[in-house]
Amino acid sequence: MKRAVITVVGKDSVGIIAKVCTFLAEHKINILDISQTIVQGFFHMMMVVDLSGMTADFSEMADGLARLGEEQLGVKAQIQREEIFDNMHRI
Amino acid sequence: MITIHEVIETNQMIQQENLDVRTITVGISLLDCISQDLEDVKQQVYKKITETAKNLVAVGGEIEKEFGIPIVNKRISVTPIALVGGAACRCPEDFVELAKTLDQAAVAVGVNFIGGYSALVAKGMTEAEENLIRSIPEALRVTERVCSSVNLGSTKTGINMDAVRLMGEVIRETAELTKERDSLGCAKLVVFCNAPDDNPFMAGAFHGVTEADAIINVGVSGPGVVKKALETVRDTDFETLCETVKKTAFKITRVGQLVAKEASRRLQIPFGIVDLSLAPTPAIGDSIAEIFEEMGLERAGAPGTTAALALLNDQVKKGGVMASSSVGGLSGAFIPVSEDHGMIQAVRDGALTLEKLEAMTCVCSVGLDMIAVPGDTPASTISGIIADEMAIGMINQKTTAVRLIPVIGKQVGEMAEFGGLLGYAPIMPVNSFSCERFIHRGGRIPAPIHSFKN
Fold first, then answer.
1. pLDDT in tens, A69-82
2. Which CATH number fits domain A3-89: 3.40.630.10, 3.30.70.260, 1.20.120.1200, 3.90.1170.30?
3. What local confidence, expressed as pLDDT, does residue A1 receive?
4. Alpha carbon B41 to chain centroid distance?
5. CA distances in angstroms from B387 to B46, B165, B378, listed in the order given
6. Is B78 helix (H, G, I), strand (E, B) or coil?
7. Do B255 and A87 touch (CB under 8 A)?
8. Which residue among B79, B371, B400, B413 has the highest number of C-beta atoms inside a 10 angstrom radius?
9. How many residue pairs bridge chain A and chain B with CB atoms within 8 Å of each other?
10. Which domains, and CATH codes, for chain B?
11. Binary contact (B68, A80; C-beta < 8 A)
């Protein structure tokens, strides 16, 4: 399974998760886990997602997600392959 | 499964603390390009480089995007050109033609530097090697992206003092030929003792003759990450300090290892090594000197700096070695003056001198790096500084290097501007007593007694 981590950082507001989830559904990306927290006054949301059924190209989808965050939600939204976190934090 | 706090930590390192992969360097063997005909060599060299590295920049870009980690430089290192061009090049001018070919190949594949305009003369020089060395000033004048290095000594062979003397003159001439740009040519020229075959960092990268046909070497970075981590253990004891550096180095290196493996898979070129060096940039928050300050020194160069650097270097290695399947290159902390704003500040404040930097090179990777000295520094003095540094490397069985820039037309206190990652540097004073008679003896310094381990 090809997994990635989506992070959303910024000011909390109504509908952030809904809009991100709609975006992911449109790209046939399955959500495996969601968590959120507030760090130093900033809203942080993290999703672990499964990319194996993804219809679009990774690069285009990542750009689309960043645009959605910036233009519609006023947050920084980013997707990264899960391995970078696994490698850094797990032996 | 990974936790949100781990994800936040990683992304803070990247976005706020300047964590990046400093370079993916593809080492390419040009031994199969050797011919007696210069035109033939040029064509084969161009073809081999542009074919082997054609996807390097694109793949680097893909990895950056997918993992969300900046890869600052994509570079190429090649077999020392003195070996590749030895049969075809009859004079220094012939070698300059090969330098131009390297430059064109670098432009074609989109890399910012290509290393390997080099000669390995630790024990003696062939005619071809001497011709290459004498061609360096002109080669660096007429090219943009070519980097040059010369290995002048090793623990096994001693120090080639004829070559040390010659390099003092070559460095001065390189400075003269690029004087309208603050002698920038010298920023692309480094001399070594115990030069590694698999170094991914410029200006000293070359693809050693012990290496495979092509190989991927990766250099990580991360002084900012170490500094931030040390902020959380301010005023604790040394054990805690060391543990923190070690753990942070592990995390940084794991990213380098991941990127190296991924680049290797996508480019179908074998993975060589991860170089564990902490490499600073002129950006605020990306400085080795800031780490010293966080450890408790008022400025880099204050008493205690050598100890601070020794522990930093050692802990970076301890953390890094466990994080990577294969480490190599220079692996340690870099202390370039012009590329580290904290070091520049320390020089300006009078805290850091050339002599202190020399002491620091006994305990870290590399050596006197990116140091601007007055433009009227005699060639023999430059050779003397090189000889000292080579001696440190030879006796301590470690790599040492010198990248000095005699800035033509400038004096102590003035600034030299090199631009970009090469940064800017205050001109530092040099000991004005002569070593001319010593340097003009010629010959070589024999290998030290502890080289005989058989």
1. 999 999 999 999 99
2. 3.30.70.260
3. 65
4. 27
5. 36, 9, 14
6. strand
7. yes
8. B400
9. 66
10. 1-443 (3.20.70.20)
11. yes
Given a contact cutoff of 8 angstroms between Cβ atoms, the answer to whether B183 and B377 are in contact is no
To test the contact with chain B by mutation, choose from A88, A90, A91 the residue with the greatest count of B C-beta atoms within 10 A, namely A88
In tens, the pLDDT along B209-257 reads 999 999 999 998 889 999 999 999 999 999 999 999 999 999 999 999 9
Length of chain B in residues, anyone? 454
pLDDT, tens only, B336-386? 999 999 999 999 999 999 999 999 999 987 889 999 999 999 999 999 999
Dihedral class, residue B350 (left if φ above 0, else alpha if ψ from -120 to 50, else beta): left
Residue B75 one-letter amino acid: R
The model's pLDDT over B105-145, given as tens digits with 9 standing for 90+, comes to 999 999 999 999 999 999 999 999 999 999 999 999 999 99
Residue where the block lists tokens 């910024």: A10
DSSP string, B393-445: HHHHTS-EEEEEEEETT--TT-EEE--GGG-EEEPPP---S--HHHHTT-SEE
Q: Write out the two tokens for B341.
A: 């704003």
Report the complex ipTM: 0.92
User: pTM of the predicted model, to two decimals?
Assistant: 0.94
CB neighbours (10 Å) of residue B193? Answer: 32
